[in-house]
Amino acid sequence: MTSYALRRLLIAAPTLFLIVTLSFFLMHLAPGGPFDDDASLEPEIIANLQAAYDLDKPVAIQYGLYLGKVVRGDFGPSIIYIDRTVTELLTIGLPVSLKLGLAAMILALLIGGTLGILAALRQNSSTDYAVMSVAMTGIAVPSFVMAPLMSLLFGVILKILPVATLEPRGALAEAVPALAPITPYILPVIALALPQIAILARLTRGAMIETLRQNYIRTARAKGVGTRTIVWTHALRAAALPVVSYLGPAAASVVTGSVVIEQIFQLPGMGRFFIQGAINRDYPLVLGIVIVYAVAVIMLNLIVDLIYGLLDPKVKVQ
Q: What is the pLDDT of residues 256-282, one digit of tens each?
């Protein structure tokens, strides 16, 4: 398994290089520059600023200089956040994005998996139809639509949860002080997790129904094994395989979705820094966040493949 992981990491290196290269040139091909809005500055000052960030050099030379810095672990200074390096901004934004993403994935797995199992055990019943209706709604309605609606309802009208702040405010924080630290994350996490809950519920339902129709499950039923034992001991491991396979794409969806969610809820995460950097043509900041996101997705896909190999003995990971 160790050799397999090392091979995957070696294969990931060219992928990461290609992502950085494409992102670099696409950013520079976009019209405008970081100092175009500074009309009040003298041309000499703008020229000095461009020289300070190597923007006065040809794009190919800028690319070579940037790669040299990245190899040494230096993402360079931010252009729009004065006197702050990209590494410092990532140190601020990464913990917020990690909390948001991990909480959304855990919530999606717990709720989506539970609903999928419940629907499979009661196939073609009212419970099954209700779960699948909710799942289809969750897939059809994107998170950037649900997020403002939840903010309006729970934050503005009912005043239960805080909106656009990390301060523990709202009726819930006052009623249950122990939950106060997590109240700013409740709405963003739910908005980010809803589409994944819907997809995982459908995947789990389909996989569980197929597994429960297998001959070894029928044999276990014929021997008098209880439903709970059949589900949790025999069926769940096999039914988890397609769900585990989806975790890689799900992680990518959560990463891209967090960009929008963090902007809507004004969370100081990497997604918000990414949007601000893209709008203001902060090349080092955008590229630094792209690299972190790319590494995260690559590592999560590797972890998913390793877990799949542990769950399915037929898959040899070596």
A: 778 888 888 888 888 888 888 888 888
Domains and CATH numbers, the chain: 96-259 (1.10.3720.10)
262, 188 in Cβ contact below 8 A? yes
- Encoded amino acid at 292, one letter: V
Of 229, 227, 143, the closest CA to residue 188 belongs to 143
Dist CA 271 CA 144 (whole Å): 13
Task: Find where tokens 């001991």 sit.
Answer: 233
Q: Give the global pTM.
A: 0.81
Q: Is the dihedral of CA 274, 275, 278, 281 positive or negative?
A: negative
- And the tokens for 11? 């294969």
For residue 39, is pLDDT > 80?
no
Checking if the pLDDT of 38 tops 70, the result is no
The angle formed by the CA atoms of residues 82, 99 and 269, to the nearest 5 degrees, is 20
The 3-state secondary structure of the chain, one letter per residue: CHHHHHHHHHHHHHHHHHHHHHHHHHHHHCCCCCCCCCCCCCHHHHHHHHHHCCCCCCHHHHHHHHHHHHHCCCCCECCCCCCCEHHHHHHHHHHHHHHHHHHHHHHHHHHHHHHHHHHHHCCCCHHHHHHHHHHHHHHHCCHHHHHHHHHHHHHHHCCCCCCCCCCCCCHHHHHCHHHHHHHHHHHHHHHHHHHHHHHHHHHHHHHHHHHHCCHHHHHHHHCCCCHHHHHHHHHHHHHHHHHHHHHHHHHHHHHHHHHHHHHHCCCCCHHHHHHHHHHCCCHHHHHHHHHHHHHHHHHHHHHHHHHHHHHCCCCCCC
